[in-house]
Amino acid sequence: MLLALVVLRIVKPLHLLLVAGLLVVVVFVFVPDYVYRISTVSELTQLTSGDVTEVEGSLRGRATVNLAAIQIFVDHPLLGVGPGQTALHTRAIGNEIGLRVLTTDRRAHNMYLEELADTGVVGFAVFMGIVAYLLRRLWQIAKQAQRAHSTDIYYTTMGLLLAIIVYLTTAVFLHLSYVRYYWLLIALASAAVEIYGRHTSTEQLTSG
Questions:
Q1: Most Cβ neighbours (<10 Å): which of 79, 98, 105, 157?
Q2: N-term to C-term CA, the chain
Q3: Taking a C-beta distance cutoff of 8 angstroms, is the pair 106, 90 a contact?
Q4: In whole angstroms, how far apart are CA 31 and each of 20, 26, 34?
């Protein structure tokens, strides 16, 4: 979120450094277990060494289901295995990989890999195309509103834009979790594009 705020020129880089420094101090003091959790990420390099016994079990499990999702996509690249069907195949394929034995059906821990495995290139292109269109239109409307000094529209559209970016970022580490909230966010963004898009266009025509 902080990096996105800097890229979108909402927050200055110096302010980002100050906030990041404060967050580091707060985490070290109040949430030391989180520091340990982050430190285990370094063990990922050992997954390719051949000896994975020292790698934390959760990392091996996530690597297993993600590699299984990649294999499923490779086997069914065009249309995938069907929406919501990847979890039915990850156990069998994952156990062949050998990083960790899966005893239950598991979903991929990556939204993008799971969508590719579920719906293939065709479905994934449609899924991401919707998001790409909304992000582009929200950005355009926000800039138009900023030039017109329409602060309500600017902050609303930028808020929705940032919310989608954050969800897309966290989706790298988790499947399409709490999907109803995701589609609610997409619906709100779509409504904003439709309503505010007309509003900013009308303002431009009037001012022209």
A1: 157
A2: 36
A3: yes
A4: 15, 7, 6
**Gap between the Cα atoms of 138 and 208, Å rounded:** 22
Rounded distance between C-alpha atoms, residue 121 and residue 81, angstroms? 11
If DSSP states are collapsed to H, E and C, what string results for the chain? CHHHHHHCCCCCHHHHHHHHHHHHHHHHHHCHHHHHHHHHHHHHHHHHCCCCCCCCHHHHHHHHHHHHHHHHHHHCCCCCCCCCCCHHHHHHHHHHHCCCCCCCCCCCCCHHHHHHHHHHHHHHHHHHHHHHHHHHHHHHHHHHHHHCCCHHHHHHHHHHHHHHHHHHHHCCCCCCCCHHHHHHHHHHHHHHHHHHHHHHHHHHHHHC
Phi, psi angle pair for 2, to nearest 5°: -65, -40
Tell me the CA distances in angstroms from 98 to 4, 113, 135, one per residue in order. Answer: 38, 19, 40
Q: Read off the tokens for 78.
A: 């065009």
Contact 99, 63 (CB under 8 A): yes
Per residue of the chain (208 residues), give pLDDT as tens: 888 888 888 888 888 889 889 988 898 888 888 777 676 666 666 566 555 655 677 778 888 999 999 999 999 999 999 999 999 999 999 999 878 888 889 999 999 999 999 999 999 999 999 999 999 999 999 999 999 899 999 999 999 999 999 999 999 988 887 789 999 999 999 999 999 988 766 555 344 4
